[in-house]
Amino acid sequence: MLVVLAVVAAALQTMSAGIHVLGVAALNPAWRELDGPTYLAVKQAADRRFPALMRPFTLLGLAAVVALTVACAVTGSQPSGALAAAGAVAAVVGLLAVVRGDLPINQRMANWSADALPVDWQEERRRWERWFALRTGAALVAAGACLAALVAVGGQG
Asked: Where do the TM regions start and end (predicted)?
């Protein structure tokens, strides 16, 4: 049972981290090269589509790593429990970055018009990129912790 939970948690967290890394490494730099109205059109389109992809990875990944943490605690499996707990904390940090940073900025940007961008639109974009980078870092830590927990669980059996 622990191995199955560890595989599911590691798979979901790793897929989420991969998607985020793609954003930080490729999409965000490419979008930075766009003029304001074009950037806004692309960002608004992405924000209409991205949540349907990321919500399942985020919530199911968090549930899986929390379940793994609890299962490790119940079975006394260490160090896999500590690694899973670190993954759970990182996943929560990533979720908080979404709720406190990404989403409020996305909601403001959804109401912008390409004909009348706010004067500080580039600063708002930078703020969003910083929150997204925090979210990405948390996703990488969660993925690494879950992969390490998987290795630890596999080594116990």
From this structure: 6-27, 57-76, 82-99, 132-153
